[in-house]
Amino acid sequence: MNSVRLPAALGLLAGELLAQSGMSVEDRVTALLSRMTLDEKIGQMSQSTSIRTPLSEQFKAEIRAGRWGSFLNAGSVTDRAEAQRIAMKESRLGIPLLFARDVIHGYKTIFPIPLGQAASWNPELIEEAARQAAREATAEGIRWTFAPMLDIARDPRWGRVAESLGEDPFLAGTLGAAMVRGFQGRSLADPDSLAACAKHFAGYGAAEAGRDYNSVWLPEILLREVYFPPFHAARLAGVASFMTAFNALNGVPATGNRFLLRDILRGEWNYDGVVVSDYEAVPEMVRHGYARDDRDAATKALTAGVDMEMVSTSYVDRLKQLVESGSIGMNLIDAAVRNILRLKFRLGLFDQTIAPREVSPGPASLAIAERAAMESAVLLKNEGELLPLSGSVRTVAVIGPLADSRLDQVGTWSMDAVADAVQTPLAALRNRMGTGRVLYAPGLRNSRDRTTDGFPAAVEAARRADIVLLFLGEEQILSGEARSRAFLDLPGAQAALVDAIHQAGKPMVAVLMAGRPLTFHDVAAQARAVLYAWHPGAMGGPAISKLLFGDAAPSGRLPITFPRTVGQVPIYYSELRTGRPASEKELGIPLGNPEQPAGYTSKYIDVDFTPEYPFGFGLTYSRFEYSPVRLSAPVLRAAQPITASAEIVNRGARDGVETVQLYFHHVAASVAQPVRKLAGFQRVLLKPGESRRVSFQISSDDLAFYDQSRRRVTEPGRVQVWIAPDAARGSMAEFTVQSVTEPVE
Ligand code: GLC
Known about the structure:
Blueprint: H1 8-21, H2 25-33, H3 38-44, E1 46-48, H4 57-64, E2 70-72, H5 77-90, E3 98-101, H6 114-118, H7 123-139, E4 144-145, H8 169-184, E5 197-201, H9 220-227, H10 229-236, E6 241-244, E7 248-249, E8 252-253, H11 258-268, E9 274-276, H12 284-287, H13 294-304, E10 309-310, H14 314-324, H15 330-346, H16 363-376, E11 378-382, E12 396-399, H17 406-410, H18 425-433, E13 438-441, H19 455-464, E14 467-473, H20 494-502, E15 508-513, H21 521-526, E16 529-532, H22 540-549, E17 624-626, E18 630-631, E19 635-636, E20 642-650, E21 656-666, E22 677-686, E23 691-698, E24 705-706, E25 712-713, E26 717-724, E27 731-737
Parallel strand pairs: 1-2, 1-10, 2-3, 3-4, 5-6, 6-9, 12-13, 12-14, 14-15, 15-16, 19-27
Antiparallel strand pairs: 7-8, 11-16, 17-20, 18-20, 20-23, 21-22, 21-26, 24-25, 26-27
Helix pairs in contact: 2-15, 3-14, 3-15, 7-8, 7-16, 8-10, 13-14, 16-22, 18-22, 19-20
């Protein structure tokens, strides 16, 4: 039954009266919902990407009719301002539009890709970067971003690993919550608050074979232990929205998955925010073989709990007829619209008066970008402490396809980047050393170039220089959505270029810029030092230059395991031990001995089964020593946490930041537990010779896991605990958990 149709003027007046009445958000939602027609309700549930400059008369008419609730990628600041004016001043009820954009790792000022930011292990820095991105985007009228991406990623073949916060649920949850706080700020109602979106719910990072959009098969216990926690952390941080994933989860597309959206999100997590589909994911359920047609797709999406449809028009084409025929209850429509209106009221959109304006990167935002790029870089090798480069270095050869590519260094999802604000490593090194001391020869036209005609000039530059700085990795286009790779090697002829340069006999430093872990074993063997800078964003150049010359020291730690070869994938630290664990460095079966009884362990016979670089790994320009782990008690009782601590000493000659990591392992449990699980970390700055005792409190809740009946419990038994520099090292202590406890949810 449609409500009484108020004339536009009275509708607007009512809207303003609501705003002035001091009514609660919920009451304002109820009051507005009661006056909406079915068409207006369905309009709120539709997000379009079709604003075109200039706005056509037909488009303006649609906005006046309440045809759209939200826009994605909506044109210019001017377009958005005009569309919003029409919606609020010329439509019957004056419901404001919600403008959305993928502000993933910066808006006009681009920060390192999220995987790079995760390598900082610095929640405060990540929150600050997201806050800056929110300031820029909201100034231009955007109030909703589709970030953070919280998909746990353990397969570097998957292009979207670049957008992830890595392989570990504790780290990804901690950093994802910081991103939510940064985007949304103190209050959603603040004009510079950018509604965040936890995406893609859920399991997307486990796409089979690392092939984007592919099927995902995950047992519920793994969903609950690994893939849900970062989303739950975002829920607890107050994330304003969720986005459904493209993939089918155990045969049911996430966009029609009632287990995910009703049982977990709305049920167990009691969530009242907006759920938006991914781009055209509603009708894609027909291709999945899950919906008969778009009527069925619209029904399944709405029934599962998708409030708003992104870009496709199944809702606006089908829902009215489905309601009028009695196939769908108005209660489902009202529940969806209520969630959408609630977000709009919470954002203060009905009361907004600030006109959007153009913004550009400034010194303050670029300073954050530089710090983020510095703290994201991971030093993987530094033979003979070649780095930091000494002042005696007179001339450097800058070689490689990524030394001077603004577009490539900002990485995926950087469509609003301001190119003039991007400084490349070549530019930064020339600024620092003077152009004459920097010999530049790219060697290749781009990262995929397989021609070698640029090699001679590069070799000549190397011969004339004191040291070679190689800038290698992936172009931007090789990273991100729909950019899965079957190989992880350096693309093109980059490895051959390094072989050629190596002949010049000069010390080489390899700086890699990429959107994923790459395999580059031979390059790492030839180089004296290796710095992994990811796609470092706008200030990657100055950041890398300052790290190379020691103005700052690298402090990054790997948020994801680096394989030796793609054949090891998926490879991650928190694996199960298996019944036949291989011993460290057990490699293969000795030749000439067809039956080697000792060889029957879980490994490969053609490559070392351990990773190239483990989760949590990273070097600095200092050297840290860890004392044995000390425990405050040998037994953990339900209400009495114990403290694990270790003394960390800086044995180096420079200040250094050490990321001290806490891991534990249940020796025996009703469900076999990973060999290690990250449960805490602390970043400590120590001066040369300085020591500090770093302590972690361990409660019974920290040790809880899901048992075979999917109850989250802490079981009695032996627990091993490490305080370590990464997931492969560190001293271990052991305590006992005395009794079973169910954590307080
Ligand atoms: C894309 C992505 C999603 C993004 C959305 C809007 O296909 O899967 O992460 O937010 O569409 O651009």
